[in-house]
């Protein structure tokens, strides 16, 4: 089966700074990959490459079998048009640390915006799905609330519903609970766990080791632009073989 994400020696530089130094990773359809590692190791950059926010400098990055941002002819790569890139990107949902909801739109309006604007859906169709999604994330009663009237955890759950409204085949999460008060973390992780159980393919950057241990199919530990080790959560988190992984885990656990 074609993996949903495949990174083959992915390299990304910012000027002379090598941020990704040859990343090899694979995420099967329906699987959850948790990326862990110290700040500055390249986790966000890797997600941003998957989501067309950064261009890969070398190597190959595929989503669902298609090269991200390029088309290959023989040995040569050609950049795809912005329109084609937008089409690829539409199939990927991303949730950031900061929720970035439109402050002057209600929860429901935030969720229907992209399907109407990007997919040309009718308001009725988009609204019907949005209400279903609000129910999924436990916020059916908050459809008409403005972001400022919601807690951080609720806002993040709206942001997840908003990403899901585009019916993505892949969801990327970049430290979705890092900006939340500790008592609000659990409700967001619970929504993510439900999503994983429903079969969504997910790449999750997180420091929540409990979540990684219970929900991830694979945990990859990144440090300094490389994947130091990856495997089953029980192995990588419970019995790491690399000193760098041990050092990181001893600090975080
Ligand atoms: P992580 O998410 O693991 O904390 P990042 O992917 O955000 O790491 O960053 C990896 C490295 O790349 C850091 O040294 C960071 O300063 C650098 N970096 C990230 N984005 C840029 C950018 N747009 N320009 C220059 N350097 C960047
Ligand atoms: Mg980051």
UniProtKB/TrEMBL annotation:
Pfam families: ABC_tran. Keywords: ATP-binding, Nucleotide-binding, Transport. Residues 5-249 form the ABC transporter domain. Signal peptide: none annotated. Coiled coil: none annotated. InterPro entries: AAA+_ATPase, ABC_ATPase_HisP-typ, ABC_transporter-like_ATP-bd, ABC_transporter-like_CS, MetN_ABC_transporter-like, P-loop_NTPase. One of its GO terms (molecular function) is ATP binding. SMART domains: AAA. The keyword Transmembrane helix does not apply. Transmembrane segments: none annotated. It comes from the Bacteria. Belongs to the ABC transporter superfamily. PANTHER family: AMINO ACID IMPORT ATP-BINDING PROTEIN, PHOSPHONATES IMPORT ATP-BINDING PROTEIN PHNC. This is Amino acid ABC transporter ATP-binding protein.
């Amino acid at each position: 089966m074609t993996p949903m994400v495949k990174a083959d020696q992915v390299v990304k530089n910012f000027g002379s700074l090598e941020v990704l130094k040859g990343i090899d990773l694979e995420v099967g359809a329906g699987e959850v990959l948790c990326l862990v590692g110290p700040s500055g190791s390249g986790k966000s950059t890797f997600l941003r490459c998957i989501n067309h926010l950064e261009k890969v400098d070398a190597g190959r990055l595929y989503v669902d079998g298609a090269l991200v941002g390029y088309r290959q002819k023989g040995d040569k790569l050609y950049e795809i048009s912005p329109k084609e890139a937008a089409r690829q990107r539409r199939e990927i949902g991303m949730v950031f640390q900061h929720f970035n909801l439109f402050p002057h739109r209600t929860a429901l309006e935030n969720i229907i915006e992209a399907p109407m604007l990007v997919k040309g859906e009718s308001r009725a169709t988009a609204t019907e799905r949005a209400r279903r999604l609000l129910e999924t994330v436990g916020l059916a009663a908050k459809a008409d609330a403005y972001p400022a009237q919601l807690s951080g955890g609720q806002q993040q759950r709206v942001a997840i519903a908003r990403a899901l409204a585009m019916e993505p085949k892949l969801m990327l999460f970049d430290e979705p609970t890092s900006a939340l008060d500790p008592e609000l973390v659990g409700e967001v992780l619970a929504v993510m766990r439900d999503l994983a159980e429903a079969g969504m393919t997910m790449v999750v950057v997180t420091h929540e080791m409990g979540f990684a241990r219970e929900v991830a199919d694979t945990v990859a530990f990144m440090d300094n632009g490389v994947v130091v080790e990856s495997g089953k959560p029980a192995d990588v988190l419970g019995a790491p073989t690399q000193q760098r992984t041990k050092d990181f885990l001893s600090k975080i656990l």
